[in-house]
Hints:
The structure holds two protein chains of two kinds. Chain A is α+β, with helices and mostly antiparallel strands. Chain A folds into two domains: 2-51 and 267-400, no CATH class; 78-255, no CATH class. Chain A has 13 helices and ten strands. In chain A, helix 1 (2-15) packs across helix 11 and helix 2 (17-55) crosses helix 11 (320-356). The radius of gyration of chain A is 32 Å and the shape is elongated. Chain B has one domain (38-63, 82-218, 225-231): Rossmann fold (3-Layer(aba) Sandwich), CATH 3.40.50.300. The longest helix of chain B has 18 residues, at 181-198. Classes of the chains: A alpha+beta, B alpha/beta. The interface between A and B is medium-sized, with 20 and 27 residues.
Amino acid sequence: xxLNALLLALRxxxxxxxxxxxxxxxxxxxxxxxxxxxxxxxxxxxxxADQISSLGSNLLMVxxxxxxxxxxxxxxxxxxxxxDIEAIEQQVxxxxxxxxxxxSAVTLVAGTQNWSSTVSGTTNAYLVAGNWRLAxxxxxxxxxxxxxxxxxxxxxxxxRELFGGQSPxxxxxxVKGFDCEVIGLLAxxxxxxxxxxxxxxxxxxxxxxxxRLTGSxxxxxxxxSLKDGTNSxxxxxxxxxxxxxxxxLADNVDDNFNVMDTKQIAETLSGTxxxxxxxxxxxxxxxxxxxxxxxxxxxxxxxxxxxxxxxxRLAIGALESEVLLQxxxxxxxxxxxxxxxxxxxxxxxxxxxxxLMHMPFLFNPGINLTAFAFSAAIGVIFGYVPARxxxxxxxxxxxxxx
Amino acid sequence: MSHPEAALIALRGxxxxxxxxxxxxxxxxxxxxxxxxxxxVAVMGPSGSGKSTAMNLLGCLDTPSSGEYxxxxxxxxxxxRNQRALLRRNCLGFVFQGFNLLARTSAQENVELPLLYRGExxxxxxxxxRAALGKVGLSGWEHHTPAELSGGQQQRVAIARAIVTRPLxxxxxxxxxxxxSKRSHEIMExxxxxxxxxxxxxxxxxxxxxxxxxxxxxxxxVDGLVAQDxxxxxxxxxxxxx
Lengths: 402, 242
């Protein structure tokens, strides 16, 4: 009976191919959207997770300002000075490297090429804290750091954009009106956790950046990396009390600086991505619901259209449950077929988008199965009302129907 | 009539009222009728006489408002919708004026339909449907859809569908109403043959005396009552099968 009903249903679908296609389009789009959202969300989360490990998990960022994120109040907060860096180095236990960073967005020119990038004025400690290796050349010498010489170490993206295939070492880059000699090349790292290009950066000695780019002795933020085995919350506490002391904050005053564990940032970020994924998935699920209503609509039309046929079936002895089953299976076959097409579509969409956005493509059998089961369930839910209407027709009335 | 317990179909004081209150219309006003196995009964009467209502009741498509309908001793008026469906499935066959075949579905599949609901396996269905189509003279037309068949052929397919389950009773509602005179007579001869050779009891509604003449008994309905009940020949021998 079940098999027969399935065959009957398939025949009916084939008979109205165009209409069936339009009917299931809603389901197709809904299923594809849900799967794509969730798969890409998972890919983004995975990318962040990978990023955490590439950073080295024990990196602290110290920034001036009261809190992070939108509405961040950094305007009034005092900046860090070199003395703060020295104090941190001396007074906090278990630190591997402390790197001051002065950031500035600039346009770089080399020969006929130019490129917009970010210059970070820092020390060699940056290479240690950020887990950077040099692909070529050397780090800053003590002399260069002390004197603030015009030398720089460039990232791989900057090298590619400015020098193409040539070796950049020994060449000069023009930065905001002064020439800066390239002494080193960072090993490529690829994309960062927020989709930014980590290789698009230029490092120069802190003093050089302060003098020639920002014109002040302020330090933007501080990167602190911990030695293996150091408890990051203990180090954060020491860091906080030291900075509160140095900034002369009374006990009842909030911090006017921020210490963040990058691990924590990454976790916050993946939490945010998870929320976004859930939200987009929910929006996509609404389209699935709309698709279900489309199926119900068409099934109701179909029942009206086939009233006479239903009358014939009832007259020759079809049970109410058998007519119900036939129409229900028809609805489920439609929506399940839509689900399959949606899954196929989602597969290609995810693969294409993941490639386009340089994200890992994680095929998730769970969400595919769930979406398929959900589309079939939609067939049952939205097919039930029309099917029951068909099953409860009065055979005499139905046979009289024109 | 003389052996009421042996009757295949027995109606006692059947009434059927449509609507309620002032708008109520009593289509049947206390019908008593007995039909023995093997009879070929023509039901006649002007429109509004209650003959169609009576046929719907006899075909277990509807239930009476009051009275007793026994089919082989079973109280049909006490059966629910599904039980009546099973009774139709197992004991009754229907032929309609408008043929009522499934469109865009081959003759073979149309005839197989009742067997499908009986849960017969595919090979049994195919064989029985081919045999039934053979009986109505449509061998070789199995794969034609109703649209490719003439009216007479369509009605033959409908008859094949009705008899493929070897029913006790065949109910025909103006089976020749949509056919020309030549086809009508062919259909009637087919029904007579089924009645004689298979012993199928036939109840047929018609308003054409020509067609009614093929029956062994003619029941006239007037104003919701049996007005006249004439018998022209003894019923055929029965070797029932249901």
